[in-house]
Design goal:
The structure is a single chain. With 257 residues, the protein is mostly helical. The protein has two domains: 134 residues, no CATH class; 107 residues, no CATH class. The protein has 13 helices and two strands; from the N terminus they run αααααααααααββαα. A two-stranded antiparallel sheet has the order 1-2. α2 packs across α4 and α3 packs antiparallel against α12. The longest helix has 25 residues. It is flat, with a radius of gyration of 24 Å. The N and C termini lie far apart (48 Å).
């Protein structure tokens, strides 16, 4: 049996270049459709940036909601990760104290990334252009240090503290993750955040009244530029988003504003 393809927003969670992927999904033809809906003042570059912002907001808001409840295995994994990151940082510091080991490592790293075929290789190449040679390894070490600090803060790890107390503290702080989240509320919240972004752009672009639109039963759709624009953008990444849901989100936004 074939596995069900992921919804587009789920694939974007794993994107290596989210704006480039959004451009492939929301291509020039769709962009022209969107410009026509917004009106003559809608510049292509501005509309393109708006699609990045609106879709990006939807994807990131989805990310903040958990896929599964937290548990004790998660706490243990977080502790082990923090410890491993700290060991890595100590090993990097050790390289600097042992002959030319750090220099040899950086030279090999730069040699391997010259082709710049991946975002990671591109990042290393750009770092080599904008910083001194000794900073490259230090920069990577600082990134790992930040991951370690984040993991330890999440796990509330403290030297000499009782492990069971720490574990329970972690689980209580992550309590909102352990509760079953109503999918309808998640869907609504994520859509509301995307609509908030669209509303901000709408004012700048001079798209007219930001309204839910009017429903026409004979056409089975809402007629209204802001509703149609939102649907054109968001249906590309989540087919479950309907014009009716968008209308509700726009009304909610206008009531809060």
């Amino acid at each position: 049996m074939e596995s069900k393809p992921k919804e587009v927003w789920k694939r974007l969670l794993e994107s290596k270049d989210i704006n480039a992927d959004i451009d492939r999904i929301f291509d020039d033809q769709k962009l022209r459709e969107l410009q026509a809906i917004i009106g003559p003042n809608a510049r292509k570059w501005s509309v393109r940036r708006a699609t990045h912002s609106i879709i990006g907001t939807y994807v990131w808001t989805r990310f903040f909601f958990p896929d599964r409840p937290a548990g004790e295995a998660e706490w243990s994994r977080m502790v082990r990760f923090a410890e491993a990151a700290e060991r890595f940082s100590r090993e990097v510091s050790g390289l600097k104290r042992n002959g030319n080991a750090d220099k040899r490592l950086v030279i090999e790293l730069l040699d391997r990334t010259q082709k710049r075929e991946t975002p990671q290789e591109e990042a290393i190449f750009e770092l080599s252009r904008t910083s001194g040679p000794n900073y490259i390894l230090a920069h990577i070490q600082q990134l790992v240090d930040q991951l370690s600090i984040s993991a330890r803060r999440n796990a509330s790890v403290a030297s000499g503290a009782h492990e069971e107390e720490l574990r329970q503290d972690y689980l209580s702080k992550a309590g909102w993750l352990t509760e079953t989240t109503d999918k309808r509320n998640v869907d609504k919240f994520c859509l509301n955040e995307a609509i908030k972004r669209l509303a901000k752009f709408w004012r700048i672009a001079g798209g007219g009244s930001f309204s839910a639109g009017k429903y026409y039963p004979e056409q089975a759709q809402f007629i209204g530029s802001s509703n149609q624009a939102a649907h054109l953008i968001l249906r590309e990444i989540d087919p479950n988003i309907t014009q009716r849901k968008i209308a509700t989100a726009i009304r909610d936004h206008n009531e809060r504003s």
